[in-house]
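Folding follows sequence. Below is one example:
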Amino acid sequence: MSVRAFMLTAGLSAVALASGALATPTADVARGKALFARCAGCHAVVPGARSIGPNLAGVEGRKAASAGSYAYSPALARLKITWDRGNLDKFLAGPQKMAPGSKMAFAGLADPGQRADVIAYLATLQD
C-alpha cells in the first residue's frame, strides 16, 4: 500500500503527517472516545444537541467559531482557521496559548498520543 493510500485509509492528512504528533498510525478512536469523556461535560457530540460549549459534531473541516448559535469568545472568532487535524492538535495542546482569552477553561493535553486519539475520535463525529 502506498503512503498516500495509507493516509487516505487511516484518515490522515499531509498536514497531520508533517506535524508528527498526531499522524501516528497508532491513533486509537476508542481511546480517544474514553479520553473525550472529560470533555463531554461541556461539549455535545450529537448533531443539534446543546451544552455549555459548542457542539463538536462535524468539527473537523468546520471553520472556527461557526457552530450553530453558540456565543463564541472574540478570541476564538479572531482565529479565522478551519479545524483540521493540525489546528485541533495545536488547540488541544493549549487552548489559551492558541486563543488567549478563549472561554475554553481546559488547560490542554500535553501528551501528543492522547491528542491524536481524541482527534481520531473527533474525526468520526458527523454533523
